[in-house]
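Good day; I would like, with your permission, to put a structural problem before you. What I wish to show you is a protein chain and, alongside it, a tokenised description of its three-dimensional fold. Thank you for your consideration; the sequence and its tokens are set out here:
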Amino acid sequence: MTTDKEHSQAHSTNEHSFDELAKGLARENLSRRDALKWVGAAVVGGLLSAIPGVALAKPPPHGTPPGQGATPPGQGGTPPGQGTTTTTPAPTTTPAPTTTTTSSTTTAPPVTCAQNPCTAGEVCCDGVAGGVACLRTCAQIAPCRTGERCCEASCPSPGSPSPEHATCVPTCAITDCGGPSSGLVCVEAICAPPRGATCA
């Protein structure tokens, strides 16, 4: 059965709830929805206290009444930009070791006449354009015409700076200088460098 002490506690609890409800509504800290919840809870609590054998739910000893200390609806949470920020450290990367490869170009030694680079019968000249020069000889060219002479192949020299293949040059025997009346004389052909006969 319900004792007088329990009835007294339920009555004081209901009065306290209605007082807090009224204060919350006066301060506009309590919404209409919350107010209806509290009214419904108070009515149900009052009905239950009148029924014998039903234990009354006691409010928590340090509970916060509505409208006092609680965060008003729609105003909870942390303002943007003021919360706790957790910073995850970026992963550290270690650069891969670089390998420098030095490529060297090996230049082959120049070809020399000692290596026999020329065709048989040709004259080999060293040191021509960083290598050798293979020159045709008189034996390899067609026979010269009558009155011509063959100037043999020659390597570069002070008197002939360029290598010369064997060549046929005309002699005075076939050079007409106009006869004695012309006053010209024939200057014979030479081979260093190759030059045919001329009239002077």
Remarks:
- The beta strands are 123-128, 131-135, 148-151, 167-170, 186-187, 190-191, 194-195, 198-199.
- Residues 4-27 form the longest helix (24 residues).
